[in-house]
Specification:
201 residues, alpha/beta, Rossmann fold, 6-stranded mixed sheet, 6 helices, globular, disordered C terminus, His_PPase_superfam, His_Pase_superF_clade-1, Broad specificity phosphatase PhoE
């Protein structure tokens, strides 16, 4: 039987850019992001997994705050938004923003297109196929979306229809010849119990 590679993707914790709808730059987690990590339960298999992270401050901080010793991997870097990096979305020309959201090949901002990101992510996933060991990757929502689309052979135009909140985990399994998206009942966030009546009745 062929070895199964288990890959757990973890989206980094929240940053100021996430909360204020700015194009990402290399910024640290904000105080809310750091506090939110304290509510995260243990990742399955973390003690025996190879752990990687994007090279940015926010992914490295997330890994460190989760108690993981991660190796930075440039393949896990965020989508490059070119000269839009750090700007509010409202600061871009509406026509350019619409083109970016609807045309997967758009790269007039001087960065990567979605098709560039998908190709990069596909190449990275290919390097993991025969590992046969658990892997954890602390990365970005954009990379997680690209990994899901690659796994499902979904079109690039579906990219923005996948919502990846901060600290989301996605599990992919590879058994030749393909990757599989796997759901899990493992609770990622431990929420405090409440004795208050359910407002919904």
């Amino acid at each position: 039987m062929s070895a199964v590679t288990r890959l757990t993707l973890v989206a980094h914790a929240v940053t100021d850019a996430v909360r204020h709808a700015r194009f990402p730059a290399d910024e640290p987690l904000d105080p809310l992001g750091l506090r939110s990590i304290a509510t995260v339960g243990a990742l399955p298999g973390a003690d025996r997994a190879a752990v990687y992270c994007g090279p940015e401050t926010r992914t490295r901080q997330t890994a460190q705050s989760l108690g993981l010793s991660a190796t930075p991997d440039d393949a896990l870097r965020d989508l490059d938004c070119g000269h839009w990096a750090g700007l509010p979305m409202t600061a871009t020309d509406p026509a350019d923003l619409t083109a970016w959201l609807t045309d997967p090949t758009y790269r007039a901002h001087g960065g990567e297109s979605l098709t560039d990101l998908l190709a990069r992510t596909h190449t990275w996933l290919t390097t993991l196929e025969n590992r046969g060991d658990p892997i954890i990757a602390i990365t970005h929502p954009a990379v997680a979306r690209a990994a899901i689309l690659t796994t499902l052979d979904a079109p690039a135009k579906s990219f923005w229809r996948i919502d990846i909140p901060p600290l989301t985990t996605i599990t992919l399994h590879h058994r030749p010849p393909a990757w599989t998206l796997r759901t899990t009942p493992h609770p990622v966030i431990r929420r405090p119990c409440s004795t208050a009546p359910d407002a919904g009745g």
